[in-house]
Design brief:
The chain is built from 16 helices and 21 strands. It is α/β, with parallel strands linked by helices. The strands form 5 sheets. Strands 1, 2, 3, 4, 5, 6 and 16 form a 7-stranded mixed sheet that branches. It is globular and about 75 Å long. The chain binds flavin-adenine dinucleotide. The site of flavin-adenine dinucleotide has 35 residues, from helix 3, helix 4, helix 5, strand 4 and helix 11. Its EC number is 1.8.1.9. This is thioredoxin-disulfide reductase (NADPH). Belongs to the class-I pyridine nucleotide-disulfide oxidoreductase family. Keywords: Disulfide bond, FAD, Flavoprotein, NAD, NADP, Nucleotide-binding, Oxidoreductase, Redox-active center, Selenocysteine.
Length: 512
């Protein structure tokens, strides 16, 4: 073997040895190797280890163009759900301080927010989660490698460390769980050099100051929402519509609320240049949609939130026969999360057509491990996945948007029950409740199965989570009517819905 390998690089020698061992013995180093230690990858690897299997997980964070990097746990923990929700909470507290005065608290004015204090606390919490994930992997006997993984063949994984050292692993099954990263525009001079993305925002030590958020995805609106909430001058630049893919009536309520909350919106325009001035400020130039003349403004920070891209190029997937969706670059998967190569699977954001949400990645990962190593045949149910947009006025939904319900069933087959309501906590605080709204999109016939439920208001995530259970049980409008409310809550307004859109009656809830 040594003579045979003479003259080859160390990596090629190891690779050849591994292949020979595998071919002679039919044995692999691991039963399962997972590439990507985020929500899906960690859940899958830990579940597989519960079955006594030999499991390894490779996780590696490619620094953002600005150089930001973070620890184990993937997007959710480090640059997604967790820091986002904590910063959203910081903003909600700012509103609560204002409300508190109306409720009798003596709070000396002016109240101001300190970014470094918030950032340090949030970042410390995230670091504690990074540590927790490492400990959990150790406890469950999952081998963790801080390596960037790619495939050599369908059973062989090459891992490369930060310093360039290569490691070869073989596995009977391979799971790709590498997630996505924020996109930057290719054709806007200065965009990559002078801007940041959400990958950087949560790790800033100093306040971003006056910020331009480009994009109208939920990530864009959530970031703009909490930046406004902590008192920063924030503008959102929107090319076409906000919250694409969500119910557009609800999207309108979310942006209307943000507008009255203090977020500025520039509709129907996109930056065509980002320049750094001698002062350090960033001048952004765009074409004014009305006059078609060039317009510009200066900002301290420009944040692009125009979508996320699958980073499958470096994984060598196509070379080993894994089919990718041409436009998205995501892995084409079947109901079992299997790719076009039978022993290679993909879970989480990287799977084509999968909802890009943490609980989806976690559940799909766990179920896959149970099917691979337990006796389970249970498939992931991708229908009626609930979600919430954590904007200043939160928006929770489950099931179909009104547009999608009409598209699938026809306008005449749909009954929409709706209500504008005033959360009790808004009354004493004298807060505007114009955008607090609920609608249940139902089929018109029989017991009226509920196709979609949409809610804007406080604690939308908590409200929507409860009703999402009903969707798994085939909830109908009749079930809503048969449910007793919890008083006084906002959620009880859902089970009180009785005005149809079709009737044209005023959907304003009055009284308690
Ligand atoms: C700002 C923001 C807010 C969000 N808020 C929410 C929310 O409120 N609720 C919600 O449900 N979802 C939210 N999401 C989405 C959620 O974070 C993702 O859906 C989820 O993290 C996807 O999990 P995953 O396992 O597919 O990938 P990830 O969690 O992204 O993990 C992938 C991991 O693989 C690593 N990796 C990539 N390539 C390689 C390689 N070649 N080798 C080794 N490792 C590699 C990555 O560095 C990363 O650590 C948010 C996302 C963002 C960006």
């Amino acid at each position: 073997m040594a003579a045979f390998c003479k003259g080859r690089s160390r990596f090629k020698r190891v690779l050849l040895q591994q292949t020979l061992i595998r071919n002679l013995t039919g044995k692999f180093d691991y039963d399962l190797v997972v590439i990507g230690g985020g929500s899906g990858g960690l859940a899958c690897s830990k579940e597989a280890a519960q079955f006594g299997k030999k499991v390894a997980v490779l996780d590696y964070v490619e620094p953002s163009p600005k150089g930001t990097k973070w620890g184990l746990g993937g997007t959710c923990v480090n640059v997604g759900c967790i820091p986002k929700k904590l910063m959203h909470q910081a903003a909600l507290l700012g509103t609560a301080v204002k409300d508190a005065r109306k409720y009798g608290w003596n709070i000396p004015a002016p109240v101001s927010h300190d970014w470094p204090t918030m950032a340090e606390a949030v970042q410390n919490h995230v670091r504690s989660l990074n540590w927790g994930h490492r400990v959990q992997l150790q406890d469950k006997k999952v081998k963790y490698f801080n390596l960037k993984g790619s495939l050599v063949d369908e059973h062989t994984i090459r891992g490369v460390s930060k310093s360039g050292k290569e490691t070869v692993l073989t596995a009977a099954s391979v799971v790709i769980a590498t997630g996505m990263r924020p996109k930057f525009p290719a054709d806007v001079p200065g965009a990559v050099e002078h801007s940041i993305s959400s990958d950087d925002l949560f790790w800033l030590r100093e306040s971003p100051g006056k910020t331009l958020v480009v994009g109208a995805s939920y990530v864009a609106l959530e970031c703009a929402g909490f930046l406004t909430g902590i008192g920063l001058d924030t503008t959102v630049m929107v090319r076409s519509i906000a919250l694409r893919g969500f119910d557009q009536q609800m999207a309108g309520l979310v942006t209307d609320y943000m507008d009255s909350y203090g977020t500025k919106f520039s509709w129907e325009c996109v930056p065509n240049k980002v320049e750094k001035l001698a002062s350090g400020a960033l001048r952004v130039t765009w074409e004014d949609p009305g006059s078609r003349a060039e317009a510009s403004d200066t900002f301290d920070t420009v944040l692009w939130a125009i979508g996320r891209a699958a980073e499958t190029r470096t994984l060598n997937l196509e070379k080993v026969g894994v089919a990718l969706e041409e436009e998205s670059g995501k892995v084409i998967v079947d109901d079992c999360e299997a790719s076009s190569v039978p022993n290679i699977y993909a879970i989480g954001d990287i799977g084509e057509g999968r909802p890009e949400l943490t609980p989806v990645a976690i559940k799909a990962g766990r179920l896959l491990a149970r099917r691979l190593f337990g006796a389970s045949r249970e498939l992931m149910n991708y229908n009626n996945i609930p979600t919430t947009v954590f904007t200043p006025l939160e928006y929770g939904c489950v099931g179909l948007s009104e547009e999608e319900a009409e598209r699938r069933h026809g306008k005449d087959a749909i009954e929409v029950y709706h209500a504008f309501y005033k959360p009790l906590e808004f009354t004493v605080a004298e807060r505007d409740a114009s955008q607090c709204y609920i609608k249940a999109v139902c089929l018109r016939e029989g017991d009226q199965p509920i196709l979609g439920l949409h809610f804007t208001g406080p604690n939308a995530g908590e409200v929507t989570q409860g009703f999402a259970l009903g969707f798994q049980c085939g909830a109908t409008y009749r079930h809503l009517l048969a449910t007793v409310g919890i008083h006084p809550t906002c959620a009880e307004e859902v089970i009180k819905l009785n005005i149809t859109k079709r009737s044209g009656l005023d959907p304003m809830v009055t009284g308690c």
